[in-house]
Amino acid sequence: MNILEALKSEASKLQKQLNSVNSAIGILGGKNGVGRVKGGKKRRLSASARARIARAQRARWAKVRAARKNA
Q1: First and final CA of the chain: distance in angstroms?
Q2: What does the domain layout of the chain look like in residue ranges?
């Protein structure tokens, strides 16, 4: 039974180490050190910001089409 106790002790040590490693991974942000913090909020754009971005993109495409038409 001494071997069984030694194995349980070793399993306990390994579990503590695993918890420590998982905690470090969580602090660093998860996968490959990139990601959101647990419970972080998703960043959202306002309607006016989306409209400005859409307007700018339409202007860029108009410029491309005009250049293609003249070429």
Answers
A1: 87
A2: 47-71
